Amino acid sequence: MRVSVLLCGDRMPEIVPDDWERCTALSQVELDLQVVPGLCRKPRSIVQTAKRPERLVVGVCPGEHSVGAIQAQARRLGLDALGVELVDVSDAAGDPARSSLLVAASVARACAFGGSTPAHAKITLPRAVSRRSLFSFSEHAYAAVPDVDQGTCAAGVGCHACVDTCPQGALTWSRGVVTHDASSCEPCGLCVTACPTSSLRNPAVTPLQLRAQMSALLDSGVGPPEERGIVWRCSRATRPETDPGWCPVDVPCTGMLRPDWLLAPLLLGAGAVAIRPCGDSGCPLGNDARVERTLAFCRDFLAEVGLPPELVRSRTDSAPGGALDLAPVENIFEAGSASAVLLSLAETTAAPATVRVDHPASPVGLVHIGTASCTACTMCAQSCPTGALAFETAGEDLTVSFDASLCSACAQCLPRCPEFAGGAIRLERVSDVAVMQSGRRILFREEVSRCVRCGEVIAPKRLLARFSGMLGPEGDRVMQTVSSYCVDCRGLTTPTPAD
To answer: Which pLDDT value is given to residue 13?
Structure first.
């Protein structure tokens, strides 16, 4: 893959050839790297300088560049505007070795870009206008917004976790379909990490891109040799990340970070993880409390498994420390990876089965069935988007089972239960290592009624009893037929003399 890396020479530190060679080796691409004086002031030089690239990485000076102008040049090169990676050269703090590290990571993230569709692009106005741009025409910029993959979306079984999470009301659920209104979307990413089936995708912040960028940032063969930490940074943040050893990874909003995302860099070799919110004035989308809850859970979990809570922090004013020896996790940022991340961390303790953290920000949960009120209607299992809840009919029994390692604590099963008010189902937001390790277990068992004609299952006997109680004595004759014949055989029955 051919990648053009164009760095504005106005603030770029002196180049060290060896560092760029390591950058090229790390990315394993055909890399064309050039320092272009005045690039931020004259973005048209991108077309003049880039050599038929498949990906584009641009090093910019903060406050001096126009995102829209750079994207326009990328389109003229035949590139996807949402796939352009911008590197803030001020993050390099004048250090050539650090700049090579940040560039290498941006190249890796650019190479992992999987493309976008028109539904992913939203026209935006600049957040700030520079003095220079007041006297020039500013081309509009595109922001990457998520779109729904209807093929994998679980809205058809009643899931609307993304709708419940969206703070702007850009997502709606109707008749088993979730739709996204890009014009109302202020891309924060909350819906992306709330979706239990990975059906919402922001093409600029995919699991593959995040892993590629972090792996490059933590590679010991590139950049400065000190121990490194990952700092999750809001894309709206204005302060450069120059603290030694800390490497920035930008996301639309730090409020989107699930606890397993916040902890994941530790499994990739980071000495510590930090989270950088928007700024001193707080998150404009109101996600500060969400970030604090996520931090609190991660620190509680680390303490429970015997690791220093300081491995996750909100400041980068101290060195990150050395990497831990932890078991790797495949597809680490995909939906459903939370239990694998937590279990990998729990293996550091001598007694992992005793680890249990009850917290409202837990990324996994435990479902409990109230046997006194459950009718075994299986609506909870039918509406579970991850398959954590499941039902099976074998012989004369119907069983409802639960696998905690698959539960995302999305709570979509609760409103679908007809007997929820009576305590038939309950979700506990707790990360219990023993339960996650135990696999699938049966929560409820009930005998079923079978058709006297063909032997097919009619319904659980407890459910039929519930219907009978609702109909009262007047429904006895109806229930006699319903409880004896399946739907297909009811039209074939011969009336008895009593009828």
So the answer is: 58
**Distance (Å, whole) CA 112 – CA 209:** 5
The alpha helices in 130-199, defined as continuous H runs, are: 161-165, 190-194
Tell me whether residue 317 is in a domain: no
Tokens 């590679």, located at residue: 219
* Residue 336 one-letter amino acid: G
Encoded tokens for 4: 């053009």
Scored b (16 or more CB within 10 A) or e, 380-412 reads bbebbbbebbbbeeeeeebbbbbbbbbbbbbeb
Q: Is 46 exposed, middle or buried, given 0-12, 13-18 or 19+ CB atoms closer than 10 A?
A: buried
Q: What is the CATH number of the domain that holds 28?
A: 3.40.50
DSSP run (H or E) holding 446: strand 440-450
Q: Assign 2 to helix, strand or coil.
A: strand
Which of 145, 168, 190 represents a domain boundary (last residue)? Answer: 145
Query: Where residue 394 sits, what CATH number does that domain have?
Result: 3.30.70.20
Answer yes or no: is 37 within a domain.
yes
Domain residues for the domain of 71 are 1-145
355 assigned to some structural domain: no
Position 14 scores a pLDDT of 57
Contacts of 104 (CB under 8 A, 6+ apart): 22, 23, 26, 27, 216, 219, 222, 223
Provide the number of structural domains found in the chain.
Answer: 2
Of 410, 438, 82, residue with least CA distance to 258: 410
Given 82, 113, 145, the domain boundary residue is 145
Residue that has been written with the tokens 């990998």 in this structure: 344
Cα separation, 232 vs 457, in Å, equals: 52
- Cβ count near 329 (within 10 Å): 21
Q: What local confidence, expressed as pLDDT, does residue 57 receive?
A: 95
What does pLDDT average to over the chain?
88
212 belongs to a structural domain: no
Q: How many CB atoms lie within 10 A of CB 420?
A: 17
Return the pLDDT at 499: 40
pLDDT along the chain (499 residues), means of 10: 89 57 62 89 93 93 89 95 90 76 90 94 70 55 94 94 94 95 93 95 96 89 76 84 86 95 95 83 82 96 95 90 87 93 90 92 97 94 96 93 97 95 96 96 95 93 93 90 91 53
**pLDDT at residue 497 in the model:** 43
How far apart CA 328 and CA 402 sit, in angstroms, is 25
